[in-house]
Amino acid sequence: MAPRYGVPMRWDALFDDLAAQLAAAESQDRVAAVADLTRAEHATVLLTERLRAAPGPVTLELRDASAVTGEVREVAQEWALVVDGRRQHLVPLDAVVAVRGLGRHADPPRSSRSATLGLGHALRALQRDRRPVQVRTAAGSCSGWVARVGKDHLDLEPSPGSTHGARVVPWSALECVSEAETGYVPRRARGRGSRGSRDAVARRR
Question: Distance between CA atoms of 160 and 94, rounded to whole angstroms?
């Protein structure tokens, strides 16, 4: 009787082994498929989406070797607004060379409109705010008021309405635009009328 049942038993073992190999191959295929899907998903993630999902403070390293550290308050296609507890900083994303502190998650924009607000929209908001700012470029920092915002540049005046000493700064040169540290940028002295000019600026604020 043993020989008669030996063949089916060998076949059972053979097909069991074959089934195990197929199951292992399918498992490997599933793992590879998940890996491919994960890589494909990662390929669609934008830096702005990861900035929105930042779990805590981040550090934006800029082209001029400086850095801005703080909580990400707002992110659009071309800029990020970072708050360090004392001041707010508008950082053009073109000026960012590296980011520290990001997690692996990503958040889409709250609305398609907010995501497409360009750098010009943000700079014009600062112009309407009529508050002093500090503009940093690779050449250094300068303080004043954003007087005009063009298509690719801004005018920075040392005091509201004063063209003497005003600077025209291309957007491409911007590293960061921050709230002025003191909240007030004094008007340059102009003889006996300088004090009255400063008082006028203070009253406007």
Answer: 29
Report how far residue 180's alpha carbon sits from residue 27's, in angstroms, rounded to the nearest whole number. Answer: 59
List the Cα angle 58/83/117 in 5-degree steps.
90
Tell me the DSSP string of the chain: -HHHHHHHHHHHHHHHHHHHHHHHHHHHHHHHHHHHHHHHHHTT--HHHHHHT-SS-EEEEETTS-EEEEEEEEE-SSEEEEE-SS-EEEEEGGGEEEEES--S-----S-HHHHT--HHHHHHHHHHHT--EEEEETTEEEEEEEEEE-SSEEEEESSTT--TT-EEEEGGGEEEEEE-SSS--PPPP-GGGHHHHHHHHHHH-
The answer to which of 48-52, 102-106, 179-183, 192-196 has the lowest mean pLDDT is: 192-196
Residue 38 to residue 64: CA distance in whole angstroms: 35
| pTM of full prediction above 0.85 | no
pLDDT digits 0-9 by tens, 54-64: 999 999 999 99
